[in-house]
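Protein in question quoted in full.
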Amino acid sequence: MTRAIRHGLAGSCLCACAYLSIWSAHAADQPLAQDLNEAVTSLPVKVKNLYGRPVSGNVIVTQFKPAGAGPFPIVVINHGRNGNDRSKPARFRYTPQVRFFIERGFAVFVPTRLGYGDTGVEPDPEDSGGCRDKDYGPMAEAASSEVLAVLDYARQQPYVNPERVLLVGQSVGGYTTTATAARMPQGLVAAINFAGGAGGDPETHPGVPCQGAKLESMYAQFGKTAKVPMLWVYTQNDLYFGPQYSQAWHAAFNQAGGQAEFKLLPPFAKNGHLLFSSGLSIWEPVVAEFLGRNGFHAEPVNK
């Protein structure tokens, strides 16, 4: 852990170091998964919010790796957005999902972006405005810029293959993954979008996101420059983004030049939006097959 922190903060300012010391003491309450070689670092970044104002802070990066020296392909897993309390969890880990990728030989990096968990940043750089006046562009720009910073850090690790990169994300993280793929970072091979979107609320407007047509325009914009294969996984009972929206977004993305395969899976539990976090046994064969077709290991290699 010490080495990872030293790498992540190379050249950063004293205030970032002070922040890291405070955060690390808090994070010590979460035991690290030794069998997954879990480590935590803090990465200083600067982005702009909805109003064009600069926001600075530290992205918390939880990283995992298989045993051995590698080089391992990289996967970055991007979390969603909790509209009620974005302070929890303190940092995202996705341990069961991480095991799936570790078993297939990936080095895994899970950022906790600015405005979430213990990042302690206000104003929220991923705020997209009220439901009647959404602007999803700044959210995509800020979140994808943070992912690119994490990816730059990941490429510097001695145990990775910087030319074999996979992006994965759920909900706003899926939207962020697609936005990052549109920026075509070096080494990107493929990307997976689980229930990607924004502006949903299962309580007040189930299945109907705020300004869905604006999201359709954003996905069309992403499709113009995203040139790697993508897998989009949605469910029939997603209470954030109903199938009519996810299908329209996919069509707009591909018609603009994107290369996304769309999987609309049967209803899952009470809200299919939670498939990535709670339905690993369902999505595992779908993702494994996609990985195999794109030059990654479809089956476990570390058992």
Q: What stands out?
A: The longest strand covers residues 54-64. The mean pLDDT is 90. The longest helix spans residues 137-155. The chain has one domain: 2-293.
